[in-house]
Structure formats: structure tokens, C-alpha cells
Specification:
mainly alpha
């Protein structure tokens, strides 16, 4: 895992943790719904890191084999080195 990828994953963790803590501090008010959506946005960042944009492009393009697309891109990057 590269440092850049780790930063993306830590950013997702921080986004999820901060939005959950603020939602708890607001004591389950109406404003917790947008905070819940922010927490959900942070989850894919924690899992996929910097490859999140690539996954969204693959899904939007209608690829039924998203994992294959990501794996092929990773192999292409490794061959360049």
C-alpha cells in the first residue's frame, strides 16, 4: 500500500468517524440524516482508497465485471514499472 493510498483510506476513516461523533453529539436530531450520508460516503474510501474513482467509472460504464476491470488496470500499472 502506497502512502497516497493510505492517506485516502485514512481520510475515509476520518470522515466516517467525525460524522458519527457529531451525530452522537447532536443526540439523534434531524440533522443526523446528512451526517449519516457522509458516514456512508466514507466507507468506500476506507475500503478502496485511491481506486474509488476508478471503481465508480467502471460501474457507470456498465461493466458487469468491475473487479476484472480494476485488476486489469492494476496489472497494466505494474507492467509499466
Amino acid at each position: 500500500m502506497t502512502l497516497r493510498d493510505l492517506r485516502w483510506r485514512l481520510g475515509g476513516s476520518a470522515l466516517t468517524a467525525a460524522s458519527c461523533l457529531v451525530a452522537l453529539a447532536l443526540d439523534m436530531g434531524v440533522a443526523t440524516v446528512p451526517l449519516f450520508l457522509l458516514a456512508l460516503l466514507g466507507l468506500p474510501l476506507m475500503i478502496h482508497g485511491k481506486r474509488l474513482a476508478q471503481l465508480f467509472r467502471a460501474e457507470r460504464g456498465g461493466h458487469c465485471h468491475t473487479a476484472d476491470v480494476v485488476h486489469a488496470a492494476r496489472l497494466r500499472r505494474q507492467r509499466r514499472r
